[in-house]
């Protein structure tokens, strides 16, 4: 008898009957896009919920990344991590910029601040770190380096919805932070994203850039993009926001269950949270060490054969992908820690309604070798 599949994630969906009245309002208004009332309301409610000054909604996180870089009028080189989803580096190249990869920290798996300054040249204009798995980067050290060298900082915060440090939302760090509201994320709008910015002037520029660069009926100031979120997506986000705290609590319970059940399995190393951080429990990454009976790929295939679908986030490295191999900073000798982690990483299934029976099934499969 085949076992029911357990996927690495499962989208959180609000009650359908609560979504329908929002759709009825859209049908009545006949406003489907272009900064409609749902869009405006979600920006306001998200800013309040997240504890940030301004939220500029987008139709996806990648367009938000593209526009964040464009909004800062960057040129030359941007220092970033090879250990991320491909959209991080793609957004740099699409802006006509050159990505410069720097190795990651062995504990946080984020950009290693100790290695940033050595990568800075007279062509460097920005740093794009990633809050990997929602673990905060060393924001203070990165700010010190950026200020010293006159660099902008754009955080890829796709994993970091609702994550807080001792000063509040980690989205308030850097010049801009970018969120993803893809279906796989902690908070989703079916598909979507956002840029977090600190003042109205910057938000106004971002809003113009995401609407083709249109100033008025006769004037185009920039070669912008169509990055606007639709009213349907915004409405879905408004309903989702009512349930996000409950989802976060359920995610934490799954995280704690994993930690307890995996703690005594030799060769399984759980990636720790950054101290003092309020996590969103967006992922559950483990490292498969040499003293585990199987290597990472063997365990990945074993779980898959049992209809347990994990993910090797992030393998291969961005720097190993064909569009990025050509850069000198992509050399393996420059990225030893990232390469080592990418060969050992495995993200286990995690979503709010992952039940105890399914968790135990995953644990049993990992134990039985």
Give the topology, please:
Elements: H1 16-29, H2 37-50, E1 54-58, H3 61-71, E2 77-80, H4 87-94, E3 98-101, E4 124-128, H5 139-149, E5 152-156, E6 164-165, E7 168-169, E8 176-180, E9 193-197, H6 200-209, H7 231-241, H8 244-262, E10 268-270, E11 284-288, H9 296-305, H10 336-342, E12 345-348, H11 356-367
Parallel strand pairs: 2-3, 2-4, 4-5, 5-8
Antiparallel strand pairs: 1-9, 6-7, 8-9, 10-11, 11-12
Helix pairs in contact: 1-7, 2-7, 3-4, 3-6, 8-11
Q: What does it look like?
A:
The longest helix is centred in the last third of the chain and has 19 residues, at 244-262. The strands form 3 sheets. Strands 1-9-8-5-4-2-3 form a 7-stranded mixed beta sheet, with helices on both faces. Strands 10-11-12 form a 3-stranded antiparallel beta sheet, with helices on one face. It has 369 residues and is of the alpha/beta class. It has 11 helices and 12 strands. It has 2 domains: 16-241, Type I PLP-dependent aspartate aminotransferase-like (Major domain) (Aspartate Aminotransferase, domain 2); 244-367, Aspartate Aminotransferase, domain 1 (Alpha-Beta Complex). The chain starts with 15 loop residues before the first helix and ends with a helix.
